[in-house]
Specification:
16% helix
């Protein structure tokens, strides 16, 4: 009887407030938009953000887990951290045209091809123009590719951290054996809340949160910078 009473109360509220009230006509069960349209609406909402936090966790065939956190304006200012179970970690601050990069000793030794980390830790930041960043160097460009692809199908209503959402399953002919599940909020703005990817070689879970929260990104103090003068050309 409790469930029936709850439904009756919600129905009465919708009739009183009008069908445009949040939670009355925009829930996953009654939303008649296609999976493609739901994704497009989510992407347009995400691309208009002035700040967002993006957490990613990946596990490859070697079972080593890696994580990253990007706090960004989705344009040219952000903080980014990445780490793996090997102990290697990288921090980045990008402010417009300048990058501040701080790899730990394990990260440096890993890229140098050494077998074991050095005893001394590395805690200084390296300053360089952001234009020197290149794909594959482990740095973030502060942006995120909110673009539709593949074939989408609407799944079941679900929740992400207690927030109602709809699951949208996407497959792409160019990614044989891979499946993406996008979770789009069904209450309030249609934020993209989570993306789960399961492939033949690895799986990744990416969550989006802290929408439009004030973004405070500051450069390290000068005494925290590594002096590279006299090194190289």
């Amino acid at each position: 009887m409790g469930r029936i009473a709850a439904v009756a109360t919600v129905t009465a509220a919708c009739l009183t407030l009008g069908v445009t009230a949040t939670g009355c006509s925009n829930d996953a069960a009654s939303d008649e938009r296609s999976a493609e349209q739901l994704l497009e609406d989510a992407y347009e909402t995400m691309k208009s953000l002035t700040s967002v936090t993006i957490n990613a966790e990946s596990t490859g065939t070697g079972k080593e887990r890696s994580t990253s956190v990007l706090v960004t304006d989705l344009k040219s200012t952000c903080t980014f951290t990445s780490s793996s179970e090997s102990g290697a970690a990288l921090e980045q601050i990008r402010i417009e045209e300048t990058d501040y990069i701080r790899p730990n000793r394990a990260y440096l030794d890993q890229w140098a091809g050494l077998e074991a980390p050095s005893a001394a830790e590395q805690d200084r930041w390296i300053k360089q123009p952001s234009s020197e960043s290149a794909p594959g160097d482990g740095l973030s460009d502060c942006t995120w590719p909110f673009a539709t692809f593949g074939e989408a199908k609407k799944g079941e209503p679900t929740e992400v951290d207690g927030r109602p959402a709809v699951a949208l399953v996407v497959t792409d002919a160019e990614d044989e054996g891979g499946t993406y599940t996008f979770h789009v909020a069904t209450e309030g703005k249609p934020y993209l809340l989570e993306v789960d990817y399961k492939g033949t070689d690895f799986r990744t879970t990416t969550t989006f949160s802290a929408f439009e929260k004030p973004l405070k990104v500051e450069a390290p103090d000068d005494d925290e910078l590594l002096d590279l003068s006299g090194i190289g050309g």
